[in-house]
Write a structure and sequence with these properties.
- One of its GO terms (biological process) is action potential.
- The structure is a single chain.
- This protein has twelve helices and no strands.
- It is mainly alpha-helical.
- It has helices at 2-14, 19-48, 53-80, 84-88, 91-98, 101-108, 113-124, 132-135, 139-150, 152-176, 186-197, 210-248.
- It starts with a helix and ends in a 30-residue tail after the last helix.
- The protein has two domains: 2-137, Four Helix Bundle (Hemerythrin (Met), subunit A); 148-248, Helix Hairpins, CATH 1.10.287.70.
- Helix content is 71%, strand content 0%.
- It is flat.
Length: 278
């Protein structure tokens, strides 16, 4: 009986192939959104209108309710998972635990009360990460993630090159401009290089010499590739991934025709049902 109940609970909490599992995950995502919304409303009202004691208690009760619901969900997930230890230390297990910790920390260490309020709000806002649980079941997002995974070596190589350029440019500017013009340390100079190559340009540190302005101009031109090159790499891999999916969805019965769209449910040639995307 316990084993059967545990299996049913597992399918409800983790099996997104069932309608009940998808509905439960959507319900948890809705709770996460409402809890984050409550954090923002509480922060805005508390700062601008100085909540009364009764109004403050309302948000406290809401937080207690959300925390208890997420705590029960976390306990059930740990109990029904085949290897509880593996789930606890998994990415999603850590996220689930982080969503329930803030209130318990405040209860265990009440002496940090006022100083902890701002950190408490920030930690509660992390619940928005639970929405990623819903996004990961969308075929388009899976395609994007697969494309990024396939392009990881090219992306790592490109960003490693950018890091080298930042360090070299920072070193040059530190030597050219020096402390009198705001480039007081190598760290500050590299910070300026990062801000410049991303074309943000805060203006808090600017070159004053001709050589420094030449280096800045080169960095600005390089900055355009920071967006263009990774976008091109990921787009190419996404195109390849989509083409693979379309070729893989061939008619399983009569004509064996391939090249079907990812949203197609029936063969465009003979009308037979197509296999679903994994």
């Amino acid at each position: 009986m316990i084993t059967t109940a545990r299996k049913q609970m597992y399918h409800l909490l983790f099996d997104q192939r069932t309608k009940s599992g998808r509905r439960f995950e959507a319900f948890c995502g809705l709770l996460a959104l409402l809890s984050v919304l409550a954090v923002f409303v509480e922060s805005g009202l508390g700062t601008q209108y100085h909540l009364t004691y009764d109004e403050w208690k309302l948000f406290v009760y809401l937080e207690i309710g959300f925390t208890l619901l997420f705590t029960l969900e976390y306990i059930f997930r740990v109990l029904c998972w085949p290897n509880p230890r593996k789930y606890v230390f998994s990415f999603w297990g850590i996220i689930d635990l982080a969503t329930i910790l803030p209130l318990y920390v405040l209860w265990l260490w009440p002496e940090i009360g006022v100083n902890y309020v701002f950190a408490w709000r920030a930690m509660r806002a992390i619940r928005v990460l639970r929405i990623l649980k819903l996004l990961r079941y969308m075929p388009t997002l899976n395609t994007l993630w697969q494309a990024i995974t396939n392009a990881r070596h090219q992306l790592i190589l490109f960003y490693a090159f950018i890091v080298i350029v930042m360090v070299v440019a920072g070193g040059l500017m530190y030597g050219i401009e020096g402390p009198p013009n705001g480039f007081t340390t190598l760290g500050t100079s590299v910070y300026w290089a990062v801000v410049t190559v991303t074309t943000v340009g805060y203006g808090d540190i600017t070159p004053h010499t001709g050589a420094g302005r030449m280096v800045a101009s080169i960095l600005i031109l390089i900055g355009y590739s920071v967006i263009a090159i990774p976008t091109g790499i990921i787009t190419a891999h996404m195109t390849n991934e989509l083409q693979k999916q379309r070729n893989a969805r061939s008619c399983p019965r009569r004509c064996h025709k391939g090249n079907h769209d990812s949203e197609a449910r029936f063969c465009k040639s003979c009308g037979s049902a197509l296999p679903k995307l994994s």
